[in-house]
Automatic annotation (TrEMBL):
Pfam family membership, one: STAT_bind
GO biological process, one term: type II interferon-mediated signaling pathway
Primary residence: cytoplasm
Organism: Anthoscopus minutus (Southern penduline-tit)
InterPro entries given in the database record: p53-like_TF_DNA-bd_sf, SH2, SH2_dom_sf, STAT, STAT4_CC, STAT4_DBD, STAT4_SH2, STAT_linker
Cellular component, GO annotation: cytoplasm; nucleoplasm
Protein name, UniProt field: Signal transducer and activator of transcription
Alphabetized UniProt keyword annotations: Acetylation, Activator, ADP-ribosylation, Coiled coil, Cytoplasm, DNA-binding, Isopeptide bond, Methylation, Nucleus, Phosphoprotein, SH2 domain, Transcription, Transcription regulation, Ubl conjugation
Family: Belongs to the transcription factor STAT family.
Residue ranges of domain SH2 in the record: 570-672
Any GO molecular function: DNA binding
Length: 743
């Protein structure tokens, strides 16, 4: 079943997450129509290779054209229109930057895998539960309701101001009419009655002025209360969800809803400001003793301007944190002289601001004591915000060509730091701009979450560990001295984040049994998740007992192994992976001989092994574990083929495959058959070897078990045999005779 087919079968709450990251940059209809073709391409590799990305883009356009031809015959007008629009997008927007579409599609596929992994996990962790709190959802609905009510109140006040303006114009006309009469006419009874009517009208004007000012005051107070409490909490919650999403957690949504609230409130404040200006205009035409406008208007205007300053400053956010396109799963880790991207948004979407706001990016602004290392940003570091680049028309700007460059200092500190000193240094990328609108000038500033600067890719694992620990442990967006005294982390939350590393990076999270094994490895004992506090040093700096590497280096090597060599097997759930030798034997001892399981090596970095159970002639149970396969061996021979072809030479020198059933009782070929690269019993012509008539060969991994040993030797002995030779032998010899001959 294709990945897209699995996505379509998800529950609605997960489908809503999928819907969030498909937009006009990569329309969902293309994902749907070209599902199998898209999944068969290596978009992640293309994201780092411009030539490969250009080829894939051209092929994608060809695929779209083929679909367009098909739907044209079916006369599906809507789909024809959408496909033409998509083709125009691909040929226009991405022709000059093909790696950008490769990054987008790679990210979409990765997020699909993460959501599929999250959907398969039976229990939510404490962090994810806190992010999906029903109280938070209720507050979101309350905010939207209150914003809508405020907008309606401001519009109703507009009508009151208009009525007041009409009433004053009538008063002004009637008053000037009386003033223009001769003195004798003013003494008439009718004129006196008119004067009484004007006095009554003036009283009404006074009442209406007070009423309008009161209503304006209430609107301002409601906006102030909403901004100070609920909306601020909403924004802080969104920033916290962004932090968690950056380290592999659930996708963070809600920014469009916040933008709607901020925009409506800003529009209401500007509307109130115009109402106060209109009152000032009415004041110049008519005032009187006890007039409330000259007393109340200045205070209300000052409050409105203060709220406008405040709402604009809060609305300037980093929508997408700094990230190198070459390492999309490792945001906030930046390498010197390598480009990174970062996107900012102004949550107040007003057409008057389109292309009018220029944003400047700097690094370590106003920071002088956190680090001895100094950096500057190279590339285009000033750009205008606009509504054209974003699919949803938001007012945003994306920097795509920034590069951090380290400055040489007189202290000569560059290159003298230890491996952890560099990766524990936090830096800040700041952005500043100025908004000039309706006579107001507002200076805006915001910063990214702390980033770690590396100069060598070998520093990436430890740098990523720093990013994980920081964003797990604190809500503070700018604590650059965090690692001067890093706090401990709750084990339950840390394990949840570790599971996210697997779900986001390799498409399948960890179950409770796997997490239990990691907990024991971290603590050296069985502990309660909720109570145990783990130190930063234990996680990333201290070596594991008896080993020359830390826990994090060991885990990162496993992630790398899965990603590059055994990803399909891991996604299918056939690799138990994290299980100790002791637990392994408990699981296998009562199983049918030939039952095996796959686990990651605890003694070797980035190694995977398999252990099977056997039964001796006297009925005793014995276990055999093969020497771990590392990425070097797996680069030469796919792991599924190793499991299929693996042979053991026993004392009688008859090779046989001891692997029969994947734990608990799954026939080996049923579990791994679809991942075999070829069938060794299939005949092949000599010319099929692909090179000058050579017969293709197949490598068979073989181990030898001696009588006095329960452990096999290294599987480094690889015996070559071509498929065609094997097929010929099968025609003339029995399998036993073949095995004897091979030995």
């Amino acid at each position: 079943m294709s990945q897209w087919s699995q996505v379509q079968q998800l529950e609605i709450k997960f489908l809503e997450q999928v819907d969030q990251f498909y937009d006009d940059n990569f329309p969902m209809e293309i994902r749907h129509l070209l599902a199998q073709w898209i999944e068969s391409q290596d978009w992640e590799a293309a994201a780092n290779n411009e030539a490969m990305a250009m080829i894939l883009l051209q092929n994608l356009v060809i695929q779209v054209d083929e679909q367009l031809d098909r739907v044209s015959q079916e006369k599906n007008l809507l789909l024809i229109h959408n496909l033409k629009r998509v083709r125009k997008l691909l040929q226009g927007k991405y022709h000059g930057n093909p790696m950008h579409i490769a990054v987008i599609i790679s990210n979409c596929l990765r997020e699909e895998r993460r959501i599929l992994a999250a959907a398969s996990m039976p229990v939510q962790g404490p962090l994810e539960k806190s992010l999906q709190n029903s109280v938070v959802s209720e507050r979101q609905r309350n905010v939207e309701h209150k914003v809508s009510a405020i907008k309606n109140s401001a519009q109703m006040t507009d009508q009151d101001v208009k009525y007041l303006e009409d009433l004053q114009e009538e008063f002004d006309f009637r008053y000037k009419t009386i003033q223009s009469l001769e003195q004798n006419d003013k003494n008439s009874i009718l004129i006196k009655q008119e004067m009484l009517a004007l006095q009554a009208m003036l009283n009404t004007l006074d009442y209406k002025r007070k009423e309008v000012l009161s209503k304006i005051g209430r609107v301002i107070h409601e906006i102030d209360m909403l901004m100070s409490n609920m909306l601020t909490e909403e924004l802080l919650d969104w920033k916290r969800r962004q932090q968690i999403a950056c380290i592999g957690g659930p996708l963070h949504g809600g920014l469009d809803q916040l933008q709607n609230c901020f925009t409506l409130l800003a529009e209401s404040l500007f509307q109130v400001r115009r109402q106060l200006e209109k009152l000032d205009e009415l004041l110049t035409r008519l005032t009187y003793d006890g007039d409330p406008i000259p007393v109340q208007r200045p205070q209300l205007l000052e409050k409105v301007n203060f709220l406008l300053y405040n709402i604009f400053r809060n609305s300037f956010v980093v929508e997408r944190q700094p990230c190198m396109p070459t390492h999309p799963q490792r945001p906030m880790v930046l390498k010197t002289l390598i480009q990174f991207t970062v996107k900012l948004r102004l949550l107040i979407k007003l057409p008057e601001l389109n292309y009018q706001i220029r944003v400047k990016a700097t690094i370590d602004k106003n920071v002088s004591t956190v680090s001895n290392r100094r950096f500057v940003l190279c590339g285009t570091h000033v750009k205008a915000m606009n509504m054209d680049e974003s699919a949803n028309g938001s007012l945003s700007v994306e920097f795509r060509h920034l590069q951090p460059k380290e400055m040489k200092t007189s202290a000569g500190s560059k290159g003298n730091e230890g491996p952890h000193m560099v990766t524990e240094e936090l830096h800040s990328i700041s952005f500043e701009t100025q908004v000039c609108l309706y006579g107001l000038t507002i200076n805006l500033e915001t910063s990214s979450l702390p980033v770690v600067m590396i100069s060598n890719v070998s520093q990436l694992p430890n740098a990523w560990a720093s990013i994980i620990w920081y964003n797990l442990s604190t809500n503070d967006p700018q604590n650059l001295s965090f690692f001067n005294n890093p706090p401990a982390a709750t084990l339950s939350q840390l394990l949840e984040v570790l599971s996210w590393q697997f779900s986001s990076y390799v498409g399948r999270g960890l179950n409770s049994e796997q997490l239990n094994m990691l907990a024991e490895k971290l603590t050296g004992q069985q502990v309660s998740y909720n109570d145990y506090q783990l130190s930063w040093a234990k996680f990333c700096k201290e070596h594991l007992p008896g080993k020359s590497f830390t826990f994090w280096v060991w885990l990162e090597a496993i992630l790398d192994l899965i990603k590059k060599h055994i990803l399909p097997l891991w996604i299918d759930g056939y690799i138990m992976g994290f299980v100790s030798k002791e637990k392994e034997r408990i699981l296998l001892k009562d199983k049918t001989p030939g039952t095996f399981l796959l686990r990651f090596s605890e003694s070797n970095l980035g190694g995977i092994t398999f252990t099977w159970v056997d039964q001796l002639e006297n009925g005793d149970v014995t276990f055999h574990s093969v020497e771990p396969y590392n990425k070097g061996r797996l680069a030469a021979l796919p792991f599924a083929d190793i499991l299929r072809d693996y042979k053991v030479i026993m004392a009688d020198n008859v090779p046989e495959n001891p692997l029969k059933y994947l734990y608990p009782d799954i026939p080996k070929d049923k579990a791994f058959g679809k991942h075999y690269s070829c069938q060794p019993n299939e005949g092949s012509k000599p010319s099929d070897g692909g090179g000058k008539g050579y017969v293709p060969s197949v490598f068979i991994p073989v181990s030898k078990i001696l009588n006095d040993s329960t452990e096999p030797h290294s599987p480094s002995d690889l015996l070559p045999m071509s498929p065609s030779v094997y097929a010929v032998l099968r025609e003339h010899l029995s399998p036993t005779a073949i095995e004897t001959a091979v030995s």
